[in-house]
Design goal:
Blueprint: E1 5-6, E2 24-32, E3 38-45, E4 54-60, E5 67-68, E6 86-95, E7 98-106, E8 110-113, E9 121-124, E10 137-144, E11 151-155, E12 163-168, E13 177-183, E14 198-203, E15 213-216, E16 226-229, E17 234-236, E18 239-247, E19 253-260, E20 268-271, H1 282-285, E21 294-302, E22 305-312, E23 316-323, H2 324-331
């Protein structure tokens, strides 16, 4: 029976060291660069009220034991002019020598009150939010040549779209950038889905995107509430191996995979009927914020082995591995 192997040192990255990361760290972006080093951007939070987050930079020689680079975040809402905001859920690719960071901005961070029973209760910083401000999530793209110094490049959609789980493909397809998306308010008969689902857009310049096309909707019980892209797709000879998350009625988060056509990723060649990972280990079932949560945001292939990096209960970061061929065989 197919199974991802959890690393015995899990969780491999936890909170601490500096005040800006003393509460929780989770949902990392990870990339293996040409110098043989693994670089990670983790979502780091100093407190629950408000649940302000920024990105710290870590590096590792083996992809397991990560050390912080510098004493301050490398990307934060302050750098975008929103001192009360939050940057969330980074995803990384490198195209033509440039690092592309896809991230979510919440202009005003929420306050969180964990219940231990699923999604936490929350409230907004009402004294900070201007009248009429929707305070919706907005996905953006930042670029860097060294992983330390980042510059905002473009917003992907308008402020009122509430568009998250945006994930760039690691190379252009037919001369265009391709991105997976999950617009929160693209639901209803008009959009062909009752719950938030996965969409696909293209762009020649990262600024003007084609109208999102509906790629996939929930089909199984473990993904009935919503689905969204997880880590950047991995190119194989059989297609784009694409991870995604599904959420069930109890608000538990699972990991699924799709295989998308290399030339036309709107064509799904294969898809998980069952989750390929589900919350089992204690650190995936119990945490400070959302219990029963595996949220993959990065994968790195090394010598045919796929390394999945994921957030656990919005509390810590863990690693699981499996041979790429085994995942493909499971899908096929």
């Amino acid at each position: 029976m197919f199974k991802f192997e959890r690393h015995p040192d899990n969780p491999i990255v936890t909170a601490g060291t500096y005040p800006w990361r003393k509460c929780v760290v989770f949902n990392p972006a990870v990339i293996l660069d040409d110098d043989g080093m693994f670089y990670m951007l983790d979502r780091a939070v100093p407190q629950l009220e408000p649940f302000y987050s920024s990105f710290g930079l870590l590096k590792s020689r083996d992809g397991v034991h990560f050390k912080l680079v510098g004493k301050k975040p490398v990307w934060s809402p302050d750098m975008l002019g929103f001192p009360y905001g939050s940057v969330q859920d980074p995803r990384l690719v490198k195209i033509d020598g440039i690092f592309y960071l896809v991230y979510v901005l919440r202009r005003y961070a929420w306050n969180l009150y964990p219940t231990g029973l699923g999604a936490p209760r929350n409230s907004q910083q009402k004294d900070k939010i201007p009248a009429g401000d929707l305070n919706a999530s907005r996905s953006g793209i930042a670029i860097s040549k060294d992983m330390k110094n980042w510059t905002h490049r473009e917003w992907i959609g308008p402020i009122d779209l509430d568009d998250r789980d945006n994930v760039l493909f690691p190379e252009k397809i037919d001369g265009r950038y391709a991105i997976l998306r999950r617009p929160l308010n693209f639901i209803g008969k008009k959009y062909g889905t009752k719950v938030p689902s996965m969409w696909l857009s293209y762009s020649k310049d990262l600024k003007s995107w084609t109208k999102p096309e509906l790629l996939a909707v929930p089909e199984e019980d473990w993904e009935v509430m919503k689905i969204g892209a997880s880590a950047p797709p991995v190119k194989t000879k059989h297609g784009w191996l694409t991870s995604y998350h599904g959420v069930d009625k109890t608000n538990a988060y699972y990991v699924g995979f799709m295989l998308l056509d290399l030339k036309n990723p709107m064509k799904i060649l294969a898809r998980s009927k069952k989750p390929l990972m589900e919350p089992e280990a204690y650190y995936e079932r119990f945490g400070l914020v959302i219990p029963n949560t595996i949220f993959v945001t990065a994968n790195v292939e090394v010598d045919g082995i796929l390394h999945l990096y994921y957030g656990c209960c919005d509390t810590a970061i863990a690693l699981a591995t499996a041979p790429v061929e085994d995942i493909l065989n499971e899908l096929r």
